[in-house]
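Re-running Response regulator transcription factor to confirm reproducibility after the cluster update. Everything else is unchanged from the original entry.
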Amino acid sequence: MTTTPAAASHRAPAIAKGDGSMVRVLVVDDEHSLTELLKMALKYEGWDVRTAGDGATAVKIAREFRPDAIVLDIMLPDFDGLEVLQRVRADGTETPVLFLTAKDSLDDRIAGLTAGGDDYVTKPFSLEEVVARLRGLIRRSTLTLAQAKDPVLTVGDLTLDEDSYEVARGGEPIELTATEFELLRYLMRNPRRVLSKAQILDRVWSYDFGGKESVVELYISYLRKKVDAGRAPMIHTVRGAGYMLKAAG
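Result of re-run:
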């Protein structure tokens, strides 16, 4: 760790849920000192924090606590974080997940994201980095707060409601993860405009993900399977330039 909660001289505005209740975060890591440090930092944000040191406990707490975000170590003593995520997802929840691990290879990052995780932090890290990533995930989740002046985006027969986080095409609902939603929102806010992978990384992930533009390709493929499946395509690849969304037909 490179900082403590009190080290930040300028705190970002507090995040609260739409109903005014506290944001709930579950931190899962078998290093007790690390979970306690993260707990302290997140409580400093005004959030309700629970911790777990193994996979079985994490799944149990997730089902009872129903966190708004999970910080999840991949290496745990009983079963790994990917299995924890799979079990949590099996309960029908789309809680945003920030993977926390000492592993630093692209394969490990992609494995975590493919399993349904929304972001990834590699140890060692700063507490500010973890808090910033969590704030981003929570803002993009179905629980956030910011009210748009015009909450419904429409491109062709595709609609996205920024208040209710409902997405539909041709009137048929489409279920998206928090990151998929943010990616689609960015595309829909820029219809018929070619967006580069670098632009998408900067806007959707708020950092360059180590320059790994393959993450953008991965999430574009996820969106295509949900938005374009069995329909005229709306998400287009502009070779050598990026991606563009436009009305079909």
